[in-house]
Design a protein that fits this description.
Number of strands of chain B: 0
Structural class of chain A: alpha+beta
Shape of chain A: globular
Largest sheet of chain A: 6 strands, antiparallel
Helix content of chain B: 55-70%
Helix content of chain A: 55-70%
Strand content of chain B: under 5%
CATH superfamily of the largest domain in chain B: Cytochrome C biogenesis protein
Number of domains of chain B: 2
Strand content of chain A: 5-15%
Radius of gyration of chain A: 28 Å
Number of strands of chain A: 12
Shape of chain B: elongated
Largest sheet of chain B: none
Number of helices of chain B: 7
Largest interface: A-B, 64 and 62 residues
Number of helices of chain A: 19
Number of domains of chain A: 4
Oligomer: heterodimer
CATH topology of the largest domain in chain B: Helicase, Ruva Protein, domain 3
Radius of gyration of chain B: 33 Å
CATH class of the largest domain in chain B: Mainly Alpha
């Protein structure tokens, strides 16, 4: 079986090289059959990698412990779902998943464009397959998932495997990595179309129209991956943190930030034919940051609790990044004349300008995160001294940047395209501005003194007001015209321009996320040693240990604290935090218990029993205000992203308009 | 005799420190004083990116003893600076949660804002280059207006 798997990967490697060469030579020599055969190679690669992946999953599920990967990441006692998840639980398997997702995307791209963009497609195929070749090379030679355990020339087998890291045996962890990879890998497609457009010297926006939905879907996957990771950290690590500014977490955030900037700035290109070079730079940066993130996770260059084991593949990534970036920079510089702006900026106070500032702030945030992530490496290389760049650095730099971005989220929709007059700005800002300021005043009166929290809540209300006003104005017009109620009119409004109103819903999701983040300013925690029957307070709750239970199953032994929760003297629920010891790895984990509410989460971690003979339970208890809004924000982001993908009822034509004259009397709308 | 005296003195110091440690309840280890200093120090356990104040791992081999040390030094009247200097002396500057704003490490703080400044400058250049002054208002002729009216009517008909 291992031979079949390894041969499938090797064949796929050869075919990816063939697809690169076949596409380019076929295009240059004008041989369409060669181009067609290169495209068929893409389908074959997908079949081969599907077979290799199926073989690895089969080995993981059946416990074929002759394979080094299976012995290292699976065991007999693990539930089936985690045996399957072990596919991406280690370096080699996760690289195979990378390759399989890329081959699937490539097959879809080639199939859906089999009759379109015949000029550009050979280059798109060549770029997709170049990336495929690189990753297939990694799993063919340095990191093969089908490596067998061998003593001399004889294959050996261990009786049972080490099992998947117990921290990864959690439901969100079963879907977080594939979601993140769907995002990481997905950005290869718009990048390939962008480069294809440059190579074929196309002055238009065909590549943007073609990949718009693709980019939005990929962005949605990346968002899901990042936030599921946050959800996993919150529920599994036992201290309630959802974001620790770990280098690997940062690596997943960086391409998300640049992709967000790209999704905004493409609107400038679509509507005004502006920022063409910038969009090329942004999509290329996003792609290379995806590769950089993969490199960071796998090279051991920075220490991280999330990173895979140190591996020699870092040097291959460096070479790939260096060659890729050099070629991309050369191509963009060489094709500058095809990327000339078609319009000009008419006013500094315009939607166009707000997009420029939005991009600047997003990129500044991206740079700050990247800089903080790599600064320890730079510092050690230059001064020879190790330093730490932890949460305080990122919070100090990124909190003001993030709040300014939130402000722009509200300002953007209020400013008209082309130009806004002072009068119209006053009208547009009045209600949201007053709502934001009143919120701050009310919070100060209620005793809130945290500066950033006040600003954040004020801005959240400001942005919410701008979004609601946008919906209300549009819905009211439709309701008046078609005699519908406001809700039905709002649905109709959204359906008419799904991209615009879906985008507003995404903005609303961001507001919810900021509400959740801001709640962290008011967290409370306590670590308490208690006996059965003891009571102790946390926030407005009183907790009572009712019982301590224990037991075991094939996978782990467990010990559980049964804790009754009281509020104002009456019992409002029971939580049962648990401590587990996984048998195969001898690794302890915490299964926290959370009472989730929109105003605050009560979060309990059973940290063990004192070892000094007193036999007291150690309970870490936390109150996290507003944290649930992060998950509400996540759901809202996904809803908005989904709406953006729905075809609009009214086909929008982004005419590049200009003022041709004025009339002396106001024009009556035609009846 | 001196040896014996110094041994007894050492034992006494150890006993005193042990007593102090035992007296340190978990609430004292999370007191505002410990948090204030601990927030400036990195947890060097190797598996988290928290500060000494925020690391919640029970039995963490670094943050737990570090909090005890901070509490002991705060109780003995040491200033925040003295406590932080003591940690830096033992662990090097990696003990700090954020890079010091001096020498080469100043770059870590400056660069994000330099990048922001460069971005603003780039936007200024972009606006300067691509901004077109508003055209002088010209009265639209009636034929042109008529054509636009027709366009608007056609678009509105489609909307309905």
């Amino acid at each position: 079986m291992e031979n079949l798997g390894a041969i499938s990967i090797l064949l796929a490697l050869c075919l990816s090289l063939y697809a690169v060469l076949g596409s380019i030579i076929g295009k240059w020599k004008k041989r369409p059959l060669l181009v067609l055969s290169a495209e068929r190679a893409v389908y074959t690669i997908w079949f081969l990698l599907t077979a290799a992946s199926a073989l690895l999953v089969y080995a993981l599920i059946t416990g074929d412990f002759r394979l080094s990967y299976v012995a290292g990441h699976s065991n007999r006692a693990m539930p089936l779902v985690y045996k399957f998840a072990a596919w991406w639980g280690g370096m080699e398997g996760s690289l195979l998943l990378w390759c399989w997702i890329l081959s699937s995307y490539s097959a879809v791209v080639v199939f859906t464009n089999r009759r379109r963009f015949r000029d550009m497609m050979p280059y798109v195929t060549a770029i997709l397959m170049s990336v495929q070749f690189f990753f297939l090379f990694l799993i063919s030679f340095p990191e093969s998932p089908f490596q067998v355990l061998a003593v001399g020339r004889g294959i050996t087998e261990v009786p049972d495997g080490n099992g998947l890291n117990p921290l990864l045996q959690y439901w969100t962890m079963a879907i977080h990595p594939p979601m993140l990879y769907l995002g990481y890998v997905g950005f290869v497609v718009p990048f390939a179309f962008a480069m294809g457009s440059l190579l074929t010297r196309q002055p238009g926006d065909a590549w943007i129209h073609t990949t718009r939905k693709w980019t939005i879907v990929t962005w949605g996957f990346q968002t899901t991956g990042v936030l599921l990771g946050a959800g996993w950290a919150y529920a599994v690590l036992g201290w309630g943190g959802y974001w620790g500014w770990d280098p690997v977490e940062n690596a997943s955030l960086l391409p998300w930030i640049t992709a967000t900037a790209f999704l905004h700035s493409v609107m400038m290109q679509e509507k005004k034919g502006m920022m063409k070079v910038w969009n090329m730079v942004l999509i290329s940066t996003t792609f290379f940051l995806c590769i950089f993130g993969t490199f960071l996770t796998r090279s051991g260059i920075v220490g991280s609790v999330h990173a895979f084991a140190q591996s020699p593949i870092g040097k291959y990534f460096v070479a790939f990044l260096a060659v890729g970036i050099a070629l991309t920079v050369y191509l963009i510089l060489d094709r500058l004349e095809y990327l000339k702006s078609e319009s000009r900026l008419e006013s500094v106070v315009s939607r166009e300008s707000s997009f420029l500032f939005n991009n600047l702030i997003l990129l500044a945030s991206c740079f700050a995160v990247l800089w903080g992530t790599i600064f320890p490496v730079i510092s050690e290389a230059v001064t020879g001294e190790k330093i730490s760049v932890d949460a305080p650095f990122y919070n100090r730099v990124n909190v003001p940047i993030g709040l300014f971005l939130l402000f722009l989220t509200g300002v953007g929709p209020l400013i008209a395209w082309r130009r806004s007059s002072v009068e119209s700005l006053k009208r547009a800002f009045l209600i949201p501005g007053v709502a934001g300021l009143v919120t701050i005043a009310v919070l100060i009166a209620a005793g809130v003194r945290h500066f950033y929290a006040l600003i954040s809540f004020g801005l959240c209300v400001f942005v919410t007001a701008t979004i609601l006003i946008e919906f209300w104005k549009g819905a009211r017009a439709i309701a008046a015209k078609s005699a519908r109620n406001l809700v039905a009119a709002a649905v109709e409004l959204t359906h008419r321009n799904t991209r615009r109103y879906g985008g507003y819903i995404v903005h609303m999701g961001m507001v919810f996320l900021f509400i959740g983040f801001t709640g962290a300013a008011f967290n409370k925690d306590a670590t308490t040693e208690v006996r059965i029957g003891d009571k102790f307070p946390i926030g407005r709750y009183e907790l009572k240990i009712r019982d301590l239970l224990d037991g075991d199953n094939d996978n782990y032994t467990w010990r559980r604290a049964v804790i009754d929760i009281y509020n104002g003297g009456s019992q409002i629920g029971t939580l049962e935090p648990e401590q587990r010891l996984y048998k195969a790895s001898r690794q302890p984990t915490s299964e926290v218990a959370i009472r989730r509410r929109l105003n605050e989460d009560l979060y309990l971690n059973f940290a063990g029993v004192t070892q000094d003979g007193r036999n007291m339970a150690i309970i870490q208890s936390y109150v996290f205000p507003l944290v649930s809004w992060i998950w509400v924000g996540f759901a809202t982001l996904l809803l908005g992203t989904g709406i953006c993908l729905v075809p609009p009822k009214v086909k929008m034509q982004y005419a590049r308009t200009e003022v041709v004259g004025y009339v002396e009397k106001p024009v009556q709308a035609p009846k | 005799m001196w040896k014996s005296l110094s041994r007894r003195l050492s034992k006494l110091v150890v006993a005193l420190v042990a007593t102090l440690c035992l007296a340190q309840t978990s609430s004292e280890l999370r007191s505002p004083n410990v948090r204030r200093v601990g927030d400036q120090l990195a947890c060097l356990c190797g598996s988290c990116k928290n500060t000494v104040a925020t690391c919640q791992m029970l039995g963490c081999h670094y943050s737990g003893p570090a909090r005890e040390k901070i509490l002991t030094m705060v109780s003995a009247g040491s200033t925040d600076d003295a406590i932080i200097k003591d940690f830096v002396k033992r662990e090097g500057r990696r003990a700090l949660a954020a890079p010091p704003a001096e020498g080469f490490h100043l770059l870590s703080w400056v660069m994000p804002f330099v990048a922001l400044g460069i971005g603003l400058w780039a936007i200024y250049l972009y606006i300067k280059r691509f901004r077109r002054p508003a055209p002088a208002p010209v009265k639209a002729d009636s034929a042109l207006l008529e054509r636009y009216h027709e366009d608007i009517e056609r678009d509105l008909a489609k909307l309905d």
